[in-house]
């Protein structure tokens, strides 16, 4: 790769692991998460305006959006396939295990709530500080606490609406 | 009662990837490099539209291309007519209707001569009478590599007389990219090499992994792109084989 002022390869090597992990929180399949992570960097490559000091925040924002788009796409496709008689598979032992079911619930709620709320919650659970969250989401740092709190409330409401209880 | 924020944080923590998983930076960089030089999405669409317009003009203006197009389309017109006439045999289950409708949306499976890794030539029509799982994959696609052991298992379980897996690599490097992979991975099913233009004859493999299930008559009865569950594949194969 060309060694510009913005060192793309160094950024790739430094950030790929984190970006893949953010996506993997949302997209169950690890291999698919890695494919999407590569697509995020391809997008960065084709977007010179994002290559600079703000690249890390841009990467996080783009990654979480890609992951959530994939989750929503799969949710829609699963509904469509069920409607046509496809996708009615026999539950595997992994499915009936409680932990997998709980993860699936969390993903379903994330796919249903407001996009920005879902992005905030995923990035926060990934360990980003409020300052990093504000940079990634291009929000006012002074207001980030309010945004996060609102997102958490929306998550809780949607969860209870779907599953009837918090546990 | 648990503070609200803690409860939400606990739910989201359930999505933490396990610490044993290590994303593969080096192979990801290689895949990135391979994809970086591909034409842009918009450029590909513009090119495709231009080609389509040129093809339409050729077909309309010149007798030879018109005759060729008629030859390609007429079997489907005949099949469609036969389908309508044999109303009593039509399966109106949602699966069949979807598959039939889906088939009409796609061009006929091409019957070009392909070459496998041993140099032997074959066509898809050689497999008429068998159910075929046609897999579009690439050595650079991690999700595709995950499916390979499944397909080998399907080939062992359902293969021989009734079923076959055929893997068509869409690697940009062609056999140069695929042969080294095959040398270290002992696949038990046939591998050929294609490209996006060839795959577009099936309705396209816009995202890989992509797979199609062909019934014994060589018609596409199921098609998907992206990661799929092994059990879904197996259920469809069993339905088609039995």
How would you sum up this structure, described in words?
The complex is a heterodimer of chains A (167) and B (242). Chain A is an all-alpha fold. Chain A contains 8 helices and no strands. Chain B has 242 residues and is of the alpha/beta class. Chain B contains 9 helices and 7 strands. Chain B has a 5-stranded mixed β-sheet. A two-stranded antiparallel ribbon of chain B has the order 1-2. Chain B is globular and about 70 Å long. The A-B interface holds A 1, 9, 12-13, 16-17, 20-21, 24-26, 29-35, 37-38, 41-42, 45-46, 84-87, 89-90, 92, 99, 102-103, 105-107, 109, 121-122, 124-125, 149, 152-153, 155-156, 159, 166 and B 4-5, 7-9, 11-17, 21-25, 28-29, 31-33, 35-36, 40, 93-95, 98, 141-143, 145-146, 222, 226-227, 229, 231-232, 235.
Mean pLDDT of chain B: 77
The secondary structure category of chain A is mainly alpha
Order of helices and strands of chain B: HHHHHEEEHEHEHEEH
Work out the number of β strands of chain A. 0
Helix content of chain A: over 70%
Give the integer mean of the pLDDT values of chain A: 86
Radius of gyration of chain B: 22 Å
Main β-sheet of chain A, in a few words?
A: none
């Amino acid at each position: 790769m060309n060694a510009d002022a913005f060192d793309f390869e160094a950024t790739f090597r430094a950030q790929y692991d984190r970006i893949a992990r953010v996506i993997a929180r949302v997209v169950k399949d690890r291999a698919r998460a890695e494919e999407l992570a590569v697509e995020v960097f391809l997008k960065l490559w084709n977007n010179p305006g994002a290559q600079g000091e703000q690249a890390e925040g841009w990467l996080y924002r783009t990654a979480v959006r890609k992951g959530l788009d994939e989750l929503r796409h799969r949710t829609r496709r699963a509904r469509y396939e069920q409607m046509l008689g496809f996708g009615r598979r026999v539950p595997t032992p992994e499915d009936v295990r409680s932990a997998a079911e709980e993860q699936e619930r969390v993903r379903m709620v994330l796919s249903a709530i407001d996009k920005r709320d879902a992005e905030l919650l995923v990035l926060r659970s990934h360990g980003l500080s409020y300052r990093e969250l504000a940079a990634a989401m291009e929000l006012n740092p002074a207001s980030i606490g309010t945004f996060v709190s609102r997102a958490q409330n929306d998550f809780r409401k949607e969860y209870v609406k779907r599953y009837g209880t918090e546990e | 009662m648990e503070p609200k924020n803690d409860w939400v944080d606990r739910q989201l923590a359930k999505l933490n990837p396990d610490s044993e998983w290590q994303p593969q930076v080096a192979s990801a960089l290689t895949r990135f490099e391979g994809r970086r030089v591909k034409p842009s999405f918009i450029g590909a669409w513009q090119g495709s539209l231009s080609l389509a317009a040129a093809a339409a003009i050729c077909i309309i203006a010149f007798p030879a291309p018109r005759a060729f197009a008629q030859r390609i389309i007429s079997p489907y017109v005949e099949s469609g007519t036969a389908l309508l006439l044999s109303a009593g045999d039509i399966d109106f289950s949602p699966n069949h209707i979807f598959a039939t409708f889906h088939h009409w949306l796609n061009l006929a499976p091409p019957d070009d001569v392909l070459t496998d890794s041993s140099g032997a030539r074959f066509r898809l029509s050689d497999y008429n009478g068998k159910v075929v799982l046609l897999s579009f994959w690439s050595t650079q696609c991690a999700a595709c590599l995950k499916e390979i052991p499944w397909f080998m298992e399907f080939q062992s379980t359902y293969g021989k007389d009734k079923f076959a897996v055929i893997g068509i690599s869409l690697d940009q490097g062609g056999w140069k990219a695929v042969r080294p992979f095959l040398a270290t991975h002992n696949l038990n099913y046939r591998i050929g090499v294609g490209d996006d233009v060839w795959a577009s004859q099936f309705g396209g493999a816009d995202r890989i992994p992509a797979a199609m299930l062909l019934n014994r008559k060589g018609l596409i009865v199921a098609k998907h792109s992206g990661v799929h569950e092994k059990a879904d594949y197996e259920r469809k194969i069993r339905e088609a084989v039995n």
